[in-house]
Design goal:
Distance between the termini: 14 Å
Strand content: under 5%
Helix content: over 70%
Number of domains: 1
Largest sheet: none
Order of helices and strands: HHHHHH
């Protein structure tokens, strides 16, 4: 089962690579989120990219270190579920934000598996 768990963590990391790349690419900020590359909003969205670099790093770490999987799963899950709740609360807008929500929704399956495995493994 360990290879499947590692795959789940890598899939979660892969899911967050594009948002992480916005930390260094103003053009990607505009393409992914429709935010013009200038001003304070761009800075905030690029900082969001830095935070997603931490999420990607966490997912890679989770793939290799079973001892940290519970905590990292909670962190990754908080970002994904949190965005989905905010998206729903905002009235589920169309456009780039819908794509973000769709990707987070897809990511819930490997996240659930990774979390289930972490709790099952450490409880045994």
């Amino acid at each position: 089962m360990e290879p499947a768990v590692k795959l789940a963590w890598f899939l979660l990391g892969l899911l967050h690579v594009a948002p992480a790349a916005t930390a260094v690419s103003p053009r990607l900020v505009q393409r992914l989120y429709g935010v013009a590359p200038s001003g304070d909003l761009e800075l905030l969205v690029m900082h969001r990219g830095v935070l997603f670099c931490a999420i990607v790093t966490s997912c890679v770490l989770g793939a290799f270190d079973p001892a940290v999987r519970r905590a990292l799963g909670v962190v990754v899950g908080t970002t994904m579920v949190g965005y989905l709740l905010l998206y729903w609360r905002a009235g589920m807008p169309t456009g780039p934000l819908r794509v973000v929500a769709f990707m987070d929704l897809l990511g819930l399956a490997p996240l659930a598996f990774a979390l289930w495995s972490a709790w099952r493994r450490q409880a045994a």
